[in-house]
Write a structure and sequence with these properties.
Elements lengths: L2 H17 L5 H28 L6 E7 L5 H14 L3 E5 L8 E7 H24 L8 H33 L5 H19 L13 H13 L19
Length: about 240
Amino acid sequence: MTHDDRLLSRVRAMLAQAEHPNTGPQEAEAFTARALELIGKYGIDQALLTAADWGRERVESRTIGLAAPYARQKGMLLTVVASALGGRAGFRKAQRGREASAVVYAMTADMERIELLYTSLLLQSAREMARLQVPAEENPIPYRRAWLTGYASTVLTRLVQAEKTSREDAKSGGATGVELVLADRSALVEHAMNEAHPQRETTRQPRLSAAGLKAGRRAGARANLGGHAVLDDSRSTPSAR
C-alpha cells in the first residue's frame, strides 16, 4: 500500500468514526475536521508532485448518473464539490430512455477526492431528507428542491474555506509555487471541458421555497465532508411525495 493509499484509508476510517451512531457530536466534528484536513493535504501534495513530473497525472472525465427525483439538485451538489476541489462538472438533463447525468473533469487525484466527498454528501443528504419535516403550508417537492439547493450552497462555502486553509498550511510549511501549480491544473481542466463541450447549455433555476433553502443551508453546515466512493444514488433518495 502506497503512502497515498494509506492516507485515504485514514480518511475513510476517521469518517466512519464520525458517522457512527455512537459517536457524540463533538467527537464527530473532530474526526470530520481532521479528515477534511488530510483530504486537503492530499490534494496539495499530489499537485506539487505532478508539477515535478507532468507525466504522473492527466485530466480525466467521468460520467456520473443522477437518478430522479431531484436530479438537477444532485447535479448542483456534484458541481460545487467538483469546483471546490479543482474540477469542473457539466449537467446533462434527462432525455427519453436516458437518466440525467453530469460529466466531471478533473486531474486524477482530484477526481478521487471529488468522488469521495460527493458520494458521502449524497448519502448524508438522503438521510437528512428522509427525516425532513416539511411544513404544512409548503409544497413538499419545491421545498425539498430548495432544501438541496441550500445544502449545496453551504457545502461550497465550507469546502472553499477548507481548501484555502490547506493552501496556506502548505505555504507556511515551506512549499513554493502552490498557487501557480493549482492555477495550471485548473487551466488544464477548464481547457479539457471547453474542448469537449464548447456550447454548454444553461438552465433556469425554478422558483425555490425560502424556508426549504434556509433549512438546507443549516443541514449543509452540519454535513460531514467525506465518505466512501460509491456512485450509484438510485436507492439513496426519498421519493418525491
